[in-house]
Every structure is written in C-alpha cells, then in structure tokens.
Amino acid sequence: MTALVYKPFDDLEQLATDAASSIETGQRHLNFFVSAELELNSILNKPLEDVTEKAQKWRAKEKPNDLYINHGEFIGDGLSHIINELKNKQTSNRALYSLISEKDIINQGDDPIPSFMIFQCTVVSDILYCTVYFRALEIANFFRINLEEIRLNLCEISHEIRFSKVRLAVLAFSAYKNPEQIPLERCLLDLMHPYDISDLIEDNPNKLYEILEIKAKQTTVIDTAGLEAIKAWFDPKREHKWPSNLKEKKILTAVDEAIITAKKLQNLRRSNSHHTQIDQVSEQYVQAIKNVAAEFKPCR
Fold it and tell me: What pTM was estimated for this model as a whole?
C-alpha cells in the first residue's frame, strides 16, 4: 500500500471542474475516487456561489417544499456531534455522521433516499482530514452542491476547531455525468395546486408553456401530479371553459403519452438503475413533456 496523494487545488471550483472532466457525459464509473488538498482560507473565502443557496436548502434541518428529500432531515444534530467529538478528541474515529441507517434502505423500492451517505473528520498536525462517501454521485451538477455542503460544514467546524489545511477524500460507489438531470428538485408544475393550474389554462396558457418547458428535464424522481391536473381540467364536463385557441384533443393525447411514458420509466427503474433502455425511455419522457408544452406555446 502507498500513502494517499492529495492533489492541491486553489479552490473548490477547480476541484469541481477537474472531477467533472474525469467522466464523459453518459458514462458511469464504479468506485470513483477524488482527493484534494485545500488551504482553510480557500474554504472560508471561496464558496461555489452559484449553488450556495441550494446547498443551504440541502443542509436545512427542515426539508424545503421544493425538494423531494434533503440531507438535513437525515443528519439532524450530526454536525454538532462531530464538533463536540473533535473538541474532546481531535484524532477521534467517531467524529462522523451517517445520513441513513438500514431501515431507511430496506423496502424503500425506488423512493428517494440520500446518495450522500457518510461525512467523517479528524484533525492531525493542524490538518483536517475529511472523508465522504456516496452510494451514487452525479458529477456535473449535483457534485457542486455536495462540495458546497461540505464547505459549509467545514466552515462551521473551523469556528470551534483549529486547523489550517483540509485534505478531502471523496469516494462514490457509482459516479456518472448527466448535465441535464435535475437534482431531486420539485419543479413548479408539480408544486402548484390544481386550481392554480386551472387558472393558468383559462387565463394564461402561455405561462403554462414556460412551466412545462422547465419540467422537461431528466430526473430520478418521476412526478406526474401536474400532468394529471392538466388532464383532469380537460374533462368533457368542462368543455364550455376550454379556451378556443387550444386544441384539447391534441393536448389530451400528448398528456396521456407523457403519463404512460412516465409509468414505463418508473417500472424500468425498479429493476435497474443504469441501463441504455432507461436512458432511451428517459429521453422519450422528456420529449413527451415538451410535446405537451408545445400545445400551449404562443403563436403556434
């Protein structure tokens, strides 16, 4: 065995870029590993500003409504435990938190659970060693959020524990690159009440086009609530309210196709996490939603 070599980086932006470049789009790497050495000043003063707000949502103890899950609800007081453990014993092997236990995994099917599994720290010779483990890691977008979460953790630790440098090791059982994937965020359409969707169809269908275009992204959670609400609104009993500029039969055909494709994708994901057929059906699902959006597009 040889000692681990930590690659020096000026900031987390460099690390995120370097990690993203190591995997081709659409590719999957098993036992993916990156290591980094960063000065504490970089951790404190160079945030990944484009994802700081998202990282704060993922760390929040109470899950925000626009996320299907977040990490904070699983972590609880885990970071406080790490800080207290390091205060009492800086070289502790128990300064860690685990986001999930076995009961969170068994019988969960394809329901969302954290991919960020373990965060552990120790301090030796003025260096904080930090190891994190992921069961799965999307490297293009989600890793940036994860890195900012880690940075915010390290900032909190630095308020109580003295160190001048960070050596970070990241291990992901499965890492992949999909820049088009939404990181478990609930889109506006699926957050809206059916009455609000109804109002848009009647008064501002062009806005619904914009909202559907936003939904037309690849995601690991398939939510058809908004599509179902659109379908329900076009019930024949409401024909007297149908806007004259909309083609209701084409809309219903497009919505039905999107819902059918969504269910097909859900079934495929129950039997496989990574497969070319899943990629193909995922693309079909995105296109199906775009077809629904096109029916509400202005100046068709």
Answer: 0.85
